[in-house]
Amino acid sequence: MELFKPEFGLAFWMFIAFLCLFGILAKWAWPFIIKSMEERADLIDKGVAYAQEAQSKLDNAKAEADKLIAEARNEQADILREAAKMRNELIEKARGEAAEEAKKVSQAAQVSLEQARKEAEKQLRTEVGDLALQIAEKVIRKNIASDDAQRALVDKYLSEVETKN
Amino acid sequence: MKKAITAIIAVVIIALMALGYADAAAHRSHSGGAETEVDPQEIIFEHLGDAYGWEVPFNHSQRIPLPVIVRAQDGSWHAFLSSRLADGAQYDGFQIAEGGDYNNKVVQILPDGSQYRPIDLSITKNVAGIFIAALLVLLMVFKVRNWYKKNGLKAPRRFTAALELVVDFVYTDTIRPIMGKEAPKYGPYLLTAFFFILTMNLLGLIVIFPGGANLTGNLAVTAVLALLTFLVTNLTGTKHYWKEMLWPEVPTALKCPVPLMQVIEIFGIFTKPIALMIRLFANMMGGHMVVIVFMLLIFIFGSMFGTAVGGAMTPLSVALSLFMLLLDTLVSFIQAYVFTILSTMFISMAHVHAHHE
Questions:
Q1: Smallest Cα–Cα separation from A8: which of B210, B115, B122?
Q2: Which of residues A22 and B96 earns the better pLDDT score?
Q3: Which positions in chain B touch A11 (Cβ < 8 Å)?
Q4: pLDDT tens for residues A67-107?
Q5: Gap from A42 CA to chain B (nearest CA, Å)
Q6: Residue B29 confidence (pLDDT)
Q7: Structure pTM?
Q8: Residue B39 CB burial class (10 angstroms; 0-12, 13-18, ≥19)
Q9: Does residue B146 contact residue A19 with C-beta atoms inside 8 Å?
Q10: Which residue in A27, B85, B162, B271 has its CB near the most CB atoms, within 10 A?
Q11: Where are the domains of chain B?
């Protein structure tokens, strides 16, 4: 039963072969392979995490973009409303100013009109006085007998004055 | 149509197998004259045992010569090719013994005619097989390493990927969960053991030249592997491990006057590697033996009931052998894995630092 008797030579070479194999692999191969495999596992894990993050970021970005657009729309509406308000105000203001100016102009016109009227009245008065004096002078000068004749005369002069005016 | 072709081919192969046997049997009975009895035991042990040359397929006399290295009784070393000892020839006072205590081993014939078994470091078939396996492991592992060297962290393809998958399975899924932080330190030993055993197992299943040596089915080979695990386990064991062994935390009655626990524990140190050794050896040898026995059934039936029965037996024998070989392929992997996982557990059990329950 040779099979059950371990042969020294075989064990010896097996030992040598295993130690050589182990020495070479343990020095140059296994640590490097293990390290590389672990690094790659890490890399893949990181890649997955990164992808997930990117996906969630992308989802967020969409929401954010929507929010931004909504905000922009609101702002736009605000700006438009503001502009309309401002325009109205401007128009209102311009209108008010114009009215004021018109009022001032008309007031000034009235004042000057009044003045002109007063001046005219004053002039009229002096002229009327002058005329009255002239008429009285003429009346006195003529010595007209009848009151009627005198009255007619006065009327005549008065109308003369009026036409003159 | 395809099925029909397959069936026809199968029938032709089976017919050829049966006819081939019948022809060989007839041929032998013509030339040899007397029917020689088949000795299954001899055939089995010849196939499972070691040899000084390597058989060539379809040839019973020619062998690939391998170096014989022996130390003679006077202390001198002799090295020559095994072809010089072929067919019982004597060379330099050495001969391959036939029968006796040293059956099929190189012996020195002393002047007084007695046989002396020299220290034999010959590169026998099994030793050459070990070297071939080691070389294959080296090539395979360096293939993976070179891939990483060249391609950085890109995923490997084809054969390299398959190898890497196995490395990953053994290291990441087995060694690391058991050993934890110590995995990188003992990983190289365990991975080397795994790949070496796996390669030897599978090479043993290939029947022609690069394979065919029954390596892991040989007690010397498995003994060395078990011894290495034994050494790693006990030489790196922590103080706590030895304390558990020599003064375990059990009731004093169990350990003080009669060192019962100590005896059991120390016995356990040796039974573990011995179990490793026997398990691998028995599984692999058993597998090979069954395959050969199935093939031998042809000849046993042939000699018992005549050539026709032997011929009829051929397809069944081949089918059964094929099935066993496929099963052995699975067993090759399982046994390599079992050896590795048990070694991992033994080593990690020797690295207890504190009592954790």
A1: B122
A2: A22
A3: 220-221, 223-224
A4: 999 999 999 999 999 999 999 999 999 999 999 999 999 99
A5: 10
A6: 55
A7: 0.73
A8: exposed
A9: no
A10: B85
A11: 1-34, 59-123, 125-349
DSSP 3-state of B276 = helix
* Spatial distance between the Cα atoms of A153 and A159, rounded to a whole number of angstroms: 10
Residues 6+ apart with CB under 8 A from B153: A36, A39, A40, A43
* Residues from chain A contacting residue B193 (CB–CB below 8 Å): 18
Whether residue B136 lies within 8 A of chain A, CB to CB, comes out as no
Residue B151: CB atoms within 10 A of its CB come to: 13
- B97 touches A at CB < 8 Å: no
Q: How many CA atoms lie within 13 A of B356 on its CB side?
A: 5
ipTM over 0.90: no
pLDDT, averaged across chain B: 81
| Interatomic CA distance for residues A70 and B33, integer angstroms | 107
Q: Is B293 on the interface with A (CB under 8 A)?
A: no
Residues 153-192 of B with CB under 8 A from A: 153, 155, 164, 167-168, 171-172, 184, 187-189, 191-192
Asked if the Cβ–Cβ distance from B130 to A41 is below 8 Å, we say no
CB B137 within 8 A of CB B196: yes
Q: How far is CA B77 from the centre of its chain?
A: 29
Query: What is the Cα–Cα distance from B51 to B122, expressed in whole angstroms?
Result: 10
- Round to whole Å and give the CA distance between B68 and A9: 11
Which residues of chain B have a CB within 8 Å of the CB of A20? 134
- H helices within chain B, ranges in order? 2-31, 40-48, 125-151, 158-170, 176-179, 183-205, 219-235, 239-246, 260-305, 307-349
Encode B61-71: b = buried (16+ Cβ within 10 Å), e = exposed: eebebbebbbe
Residue pLDDT, tens place only, B70-89: 887 787 788 888 777 777 77
For residues A158 and B286, give the distance between their C-alpha atoms in angstroms, rounded to a whole number: 166
* Residues B174, B192: Cα–Cα separation, whole Å: 14
**Structure confidence at residue B239 as a pLDDT band (50, 70, 90):** confident
